Amino acid sequence: MVSLKLMILESGAKARTVKKYLGRGWIVDACNGHVQDLPNRGRSKQDNKAMWSSKPGELPKPPWSFTERAEKTMSALLKKAQTKKVDEIYIATDPDREGEFIAWRLKEIFHEFPTIHRVSFNEITNNAVQDAISNPREIDMDLVDAAKVRRFMDRLVGFRCSRFSRSWSLASMGRVQTPTLGFIVDRELEREAHVPIPYHSVQVDSNAVTFKVRFHEKTDSEAWTGDDGKHHPDRTYDGDLASSAEDATRKAGAVTLETVKEGKTNRRPQPPFTTETMLRGANGRMGWAISRTNRVATGLYQAGHITYIRTDSTRTNKDARDRVRKVIEKEYGANHLGSGSLGSDAHKGAKNVQDAHEAIRPTQPEARTLDGVDADQQALYRLIWARFAASQMSDSVRERRDLTASVPGLEKPLYGTSSWRIHSGWEAVYSDGKTVMTSPPAVGFEIGSAWSFQKKKENPRMISDETKPPRRFTESSIIQEMKKADIGRPSTYLTTVGKLVDRGYALKDGSSLSPTDEGRTLWTEVVPFYGTGGDSSGTMSEGLFTPRFTALMEANLDQVEGGNSSGADVWHTFVGDFRAMHNSALELRKQKPTPKQMNYIKNRLVRMEDDVRSKFLQGKDYEELTGDDARRIIEAMNGEDSGDVPPSEKQMALIIKLADKHSIDLDQFLKERELEDLDSLTGGREGTASRVINDLIQRDRDSPATEKQVATIKSMCENLEMAVEDAMALVDTTTIDEITKNDASTLIDRLKKTIQARRRQRKK
After folding, report:
1. Is 727 exposed, middle or buried (0-12, 13-18, 19+ CB in 10 A)?
2. If DSSP states are collapsed to H, E and C, what string results for 151-202?
3. Which residue in 244, 197, 203, 247 sits closest to 224, CA to CA?
4. Domain segments of the chain as ranges
5. What is the mean pLDDT of residues 131-140?
C-alpha cells in the first residue's frame, strides 16, 4: 500500500496551487481559515464570558470552539485522512501569528495521528514548498501565545467596554477599532474648526517654468502664513497688490532673468511593497479601493505569483534580488543598477521587526507580466514587479536651475525652477504616461535674457482663493495613519476600517470617511471615561483608547511573538491596568446620568403635572442632576403610580412597519381597541404599545400563507407520498387555499421531522 501524506492549507486556491507541485502519495486540502476560536455569545455561560481566570504566570485556558461551518469541514477532513490511512500530516498555514494559531488548533484536532509536521513558506512556488517539506519545524508557541494574548485583550476590551457603551445606545468598542475611529472624528472636528484664510497669488508660465511673484519675505509684517504657521512668499492678503502685479506682468509680456543657480536633484527609489504601501500604491496609481487591491493581491499570492501579502517588512531574498538585477542590467544597462533601497525595518536595531517575512515581490523576478491572468491581476502584478525592480535601481537624476526674474513696473521679484531629467534610473520601469523633460529650454539661461510668456488662456493669472480644511481620511490614508501610529498590523488594517463602517461609526462617501453621530458620541463622550484614572503601571498615561497605548500593546505582542517577553506576564499586566481603568470609568459614570437614564426620566416627567414633576426633580434642572439623582428619581417613579412610560422608538417603528406590511388603516385599528391615536400609546411590557404589537403580529400569523410556504408544503407532501388534503388535516385546515401563515409554519416543521425520521429509518 502506498503511504499517503496530507497537507492542510488555509484556502482552496492555495491548495490547488500546491497540489500541482506534489505528486502521488499526497492529499492536499484546505481548512478554510480559522477552525477554532474563542466562543462568542453562545448558549452556555462559558461562551458568554468576557474572560476566563488564570493563575499568575499562566494564560487563560478557554474552551476553544469551532468557527462557523468549521466543524463539518474538519469532520470530513478527519474522516478522509482516516479512510485513506494517512500516516503523516503537514500543516502549511500562513507564516504569521494567525497562521500559527490555526496550525496549533489543527494539531490539536489531528492529535491522534502519529506524525504531524509544521511547514511554512513565504511564497507558493515549487521550490519553496519542497524546501519547507524538507525542513519541517515545531509549532512556534511564541507566535501562538502572541495570537492568544491579542484575542484575550480584544475580548476583554470588547465585552466590558461595549457593555459600558450601551448606556449611550452604542454597538461596540474595540482595542484597535476605537483609536482608529478617533483619527476620523478628530479630523472632522479639525475641519469644522477650520477658519479659512484668504490669499492672492500671481503666476505666469514661460518655457515650461511656472514663475510666481514673491510678495513678502518671512520677516515682513504683511507676510502670509497658513494655519500651520508656514510662510508662503508667493501669497499675499492684499488683493490690490496682487492685482497690480498681474497688470504689470501682463503688460510686460516676458520676464527677464536676474539670477540663475545651478543644482542637481537625486530621487531615490522606494523600498519594495509592504501591505500598507501596496494598498496606498494601488490607490494612488490606479485609483483602486483597498478591498479591490486586497482581493486581487490574494489571488496573485494563492496562485504562486507573489510572496505573502500580510507583511510590514521591506526585506527581500538575495536570490530574488540577484535575479531581478540581471533583468535590469540586460534591459536598461549597468548604470541603472543601484545599491538597493530598504525601509527602516531592514536596518540593524530596527523596531517592530515582528516576523521573518519578506516584502511583497514577484516569485519569478524575470517575469514582468503574467500569462493567463485577468486585467486586474496583470495591472497589480506589473506594479509590484516595478516597485521591486525599482528598489534595486539607481537614483533618477535631474538638472535644476533655480531662477529669479523681473518685469518692468513691478518691484516684486518672480521665482521659478527649471528641471530636466538626465538619468532615468528607477523611473525607467514605470510607464505612467507622463511627459518628462529630458533637455533644457532652448532659450538658455543667460542673465538678462527675456523669456516670453506661453500663449495660452489665463497666462499670466491672478489666483484668489482661501485655505481649505484638512481632507477627510480615505481608506488608504487611514491605514497609513494606523501604520504611522503603530496600531494594528497588516492582517487587521482592512477589517478594522470595515468594522467602523459596518457598525455605523463611520460613513464612506466614495473613498472619504466621515464619522456618524454615533461615532462622534463614542469618541467625544464615552472614550474620555477611560482616561488616566486608576492606572497602576503608568502604561496608560494617556488613556486606554489612545494611539500611544494601543501601539504599546502591539509592541508588547511583537515582543511575545519574538520570544522576548512572556505572554502570561504581558497578559496579567494588561488585565491589572485594564481592571483599574474600567473600574474608574464605572465610578465616573455614577457621577452623572447616562443618556439612557436622562431619556427615560424626561419621557416620564413630560407627562406629569408640574407639582409632581417638581417633587421628583427636587428643585433641580435636568442639567444639574447627578448620577445618584437619576437613580433616585427612576426608583421613585417605578415605586409609585407616577405616569405611563411612552413607547420606545423601536416599538413605534415596529407598529408602523407591521401596519404598512398588511396595508392596515392604523387609525381605525387603534380605535377598534379603544385607543385614541399613536401619541396616546404607552410603553413598557404592560403598555398599550406592546398590546398593539402583539395584535399586529397575530394578524400577520392569521394572514394567508405565502407562495413559498404553499410550494414547500406541496413539495414535502410529494416527497412523503402524502395527499395535500391529509396534510391539511394535521393543522385542522380543510384546503391549502385556506391555510394561514402560522399554521403553514407549524405544518412545515411537522413534515420536516417526518422526512428526517424516515431517512434515519432507511439508514438502519
Report:
1. buried
2. HHHHHHHHHHHHHHHHHHCCCCCCCCHHHHHHHHHHHHHHHHHCCCCEEEEE
3. 197
4. 4-139, 149-192+475-590, 198-268+397-466, 275-394, 595-639, 649-702, 707-763
5. 96
Q: What is the C-alpha separation between 9 and 15, in angstroms, rounded? A: 6
In the 8-state DSSP scheme, what is residue 123?
B
**CA–CA–CA angle 576, 178, 182 (5° rounding):** 120
pLDDT tens digits, residue range 342-360?
877 665 444 444 445 799 9
CA distances from 745 to 339, 419, 728, 759 (A): 73, 78, 12, 22
Indicate the class that CATH gives domain 198-268+397-466. Answer: mainly beta
Cβ contact 168:526 at 8 Å: yes
- What long-range pairs does 109-117 form, CB within 8 A, spacing at least 24? 109/35, 109/36, 109/74, 109/78, 110/78, 110/81, 113/81, 113/86, 113/87, 113/88, 113/89, 114/87, 115/87, 115/88, 115/89, 116/88, 116/89, 116/91, 117/88, 117/89, 117/90, 117/91
Q: To 5 degrees, how large is the angle CA 703–CA 707–CA 710?
A: 90
Residue range 511-564, pLDDT digits in tens: 899 999 999 999 999 999 998 544 444 444 468 999 999 999 999 999 999 999
Q: What are phi and psi of 727, to 5 degrees?
A: -65, -40
Tell whether the model's pLDDT for residue 252 goes beyond 90. Answer: yes
DSSP string, 636-694: HHHHTT--PPPPPHHHHHHHHHHHHHTT--HHHHHHTTT---GGG---STTSHHHHHHH
The whole-angstrom separation of Cα 575 and Cα 360 is 36
Q: Are 594 and 130 in contact (CB under 8 A)?
A: no
CATH topology of domain 149-192+475-590: Topoisomerase I; domain 2 (1.10.460)
Q: How far apart are CA 282 and CA 376, in angstroms?
A: 11
Residue 736 to residue 706: CA distance in whole angstroms = 11
- pLDDT exceeds cutoff 60 at 762: yes
Segment 426-442, tens digit of pLDDT: 999 997 667 889 999 99
Rounded to an integer, what distance in angstroms lies between the CA atom of residue 10 and that of residue 239? 65
Q: Can you say whether the dihedral through the CA atoms of 397, 399, 402, 405 is positive or negative?
A: negative
Residue 463 · residue 203 · CB < 8 Å: yes
Check: CB of residue 415 under 8 Å from CB of residue 211: yes
Give the span between the Cα atoms of 669 and 653, in whole angstroms: 16
pLDDT on residue 432: 65
Could you give the CA distance from residue 162 to residue 226 in angstroms, rounded to a whole number? 41
Domain 275-394: CATH class, spelled out: mainly alpha
Separation between Cα atoms, residue 341 and residue 644, nearest integer Å:
72
Measured CA angle at 105 (ends 102, 108), to 5 deg: 150
Strands (E), 56-108: 65-66, 86-91
Cα–Cα distance list, 33 to 92, 141, 240, 302, 569 (Å): 12, 19, 67, 13, 29
Report pTM. 0.77
Q: Return the residue matching grid coordinates 485577468.
A: 374
Q: What gap in Å lies between CA 449 and CA 257, rounded to an integer? A: 6
The tally of CA atoms less than 13 A away on the side-chain side of residue 21 is 18
pLDDT band at 613 (very low <50, low <70, confident <90, very high): confident
- Give Rg (Cα) of the chain: 35
- Mapped onto helix, strand or coil, the DSSP state of residue 569 is helix
14-46 burial, b at 16+ Cβ within 10 Å, e below that, comes to: bbebbeebbeeebbbbbbbbbbbbbbeeeeeee
Task: Please tell us whether the domain made up of 4-139 is placed in CATH 3.10.450.350.
Answer: no
For residue 505, give the nearest of 486, 522, 488 by alpha carbon.
522
Apex 435 CA angle, 432 and 438, nearest 5: 120
Which secondary structure element, helix H or strand E, spans residue 204, and what is its range?
strand 198-206
Residues in the chain, overall count = 764
